Amino acid sequence: MPMVEIAGKEVEVDEEGYLVDLSQWNEDIAKYMAVEEKVDLTESHWEVVNFLREYYAEYQIAPAVRVLTKAIGKKLGPDKGNNKYLYELFPYGPAKQACKIAGLPKPTGCI
Amino acid sequence: MSDMDDMDDDAGIVKKFMFLNRKAPHGTVYALEGLEVVLITAAFDQDVSMAFTDDGVYQLVKGIDTKGIEVKDFSKTYRALEGYDIEKLYVDQVSMDARGLSEDDLIVDVTVLSVDEMANLMAEQDVVISF
User: Fold this and answer.
1) Which residues from A are below 8 Å from B5, CB to CB?
2) Residue span of the structural domain in which A97 resides
3) Which of A9, B35, B67, B115 minimizes the number of CB atoms within 10 Å of its CB?
């Protein structure tokens, strides 16, 4: 699988650019992935990214977008737990793009 | 990405799908693959249930530690099923008894069924997929 150099460190990514070993994740990697995805990381983005990392730590999967939306709504309120808000932050798919930035695998059921 | 969630799906046919898990969690790939299929099926708005019989009941046991065998512990993922609206989890009483397990040993809330009840439930399904 391809290797990329991020902040002076070699990291392995899969053919779609997702981090292979999520224990390697750090903020530099998140920033690199965000540039790849053409996402300008703001605090609102980080909130979702960190939420995903917590979700993964708890359940060992990256959630499908519908599940992510619902779970964010529960934790951060309905003004954030909706498709419009999340797609504004991550136009090419909140689950897909935010997971990549969070160093998680592509969500299961992400077709 | 399941954009189809947003699609108008009035014409959708809802079938009863049961995923039957009969194997121990590790050693073969059945349990993990079965779980992934269930998570994917959840995107299609079907009536999904899961049943655990034989060594399959071990998939739900609390406190699994996979460090020694260097594989992912996906037992926590069963707790995410609720968020996927998969809330019908059934276990076979006889399989539990034979392994000295009770509901308190399991990581999720389940309904324990007798052999007859399980058989009836299976008979009601449109599709039973066994892993």
Assistant:
1) 65-66
2) 3-101
3) B67
